[in-house]
Structure formats: structure tokens, C-alpha cells
Amino acid sequence: MKLHKTLVAFALAGLLATPALALAQGLSGDVTPFLGTAAGTNVADIVTAIGTIVNALLAVVAIIAVVFIVIGGVRYITSQGDEDAVELAKNTIIYSIVGLIVIILSAVIINIFLGLF
Question: Does the pTM exceed 0.70?
Fold first, then answer.
């Protein structure tokens, strides 16, 4: 039950930190680039907006993956020699690291793809 409360606390902290991550991208208070021109929208502005949103979401997911690595480490330390608990902790760490690698690679691929536009 303590683990469940801890996960909820980390999730709430991550949600509270989301606006700070979005503002860290260097956006100004001017929203006119995202509204487009009177005749239509500018594709470059839309691509920039999509890139900013995707990068912020990937940053949030990466933070969650790092939190799960820490949770796996705590489980590993507190397993006290129980083989099932050690296996569960190792799986948590391994899957979190694989997830972090996938997040980094997806960020690279998305930014390369958005750079083409």
C-alpha cells in the first residue's frame, strides 16, 4: 500500500511540474505565431507548436521512467534477500531503462522528422 501511495505522490508531483516543463521551452506570451495568418496557417508555426508539445510530453515521460528506476532501486535495496522481490526489482529497473532508451530514440526521430519541415 505504501508503494501505491508513493506512486500517486510522484504522479501528482509530475503533473504539478508539467507547466514548468512547458515554460522551459522558451515560449513567450505571444500566441500570434500559433494562430497563423488571416489567410491561413503557417506550416512552420504548426510544426514548431507540435515539436514543443511532443518534447514536453517526452520530458514528462522520461521523468516518470527515472522515477521508476529509483523505485526499482528502492525495491532492490529493501528486498532483504527475498528472491521474488529481487527479481521484481531487477525487472522494474530493466524495463525502466529500456523505456528510457525508447523515449530518447523517439525524441531523436521526432526531432529529425520535424526538422525536415
Answer: no
